[in-house]
Amino acid sequence: MPGKRARRHFSQLSEFKRGLIIEMKTADWSTCRVAGRVDRSECAVRDCWETWTREGTHAQKTGSGATRKTTRREDRRIVRQALVDPTVTHSTI
């Protein structure tokens, strides 16, 4: 099923699975064997192992997305204005 593979590809590794990967790789399992056991790609296993060897941790980093330019209150106001008058442009809002 190609849809299942696509969903699995983009889902995050759980902390439990990251721990399993580290334990199996520490026990000298091959990357291919570990990937088959945890049902993840070899690339995901390799990235997890490299992070462990480089940083000594398997915890996920916090998101580093862009900082907010507007508050949640301002966002609600913008949406409300757009709903009241749908013909208004985004630059005038």
UniProtKB/TrEMBL annotation:
<feature type="compositionally biased region" description="Polar residues">
    <location>
        <begin position="59"/>
        <end position="68"/>
    </location>
</feature>
<dbReference type="GO" id="GO:0005634">
    <property type="term" value="C:nucleus"/>
</dbReference>
<protein>
    <recommendedName>
        <fullName>Transposase</fullName>
    </recommendedName>
</protein>
<dbReference type="InterPro" id="IPR009057">
    <property type="entry name" value="Homeodomain-like_sf"/>
</dbReference>
<feature type="region of interest" description="Disordered">
    <location>
        <begin position="56"/>
        <end position="79"/>
    </location>
</feature>
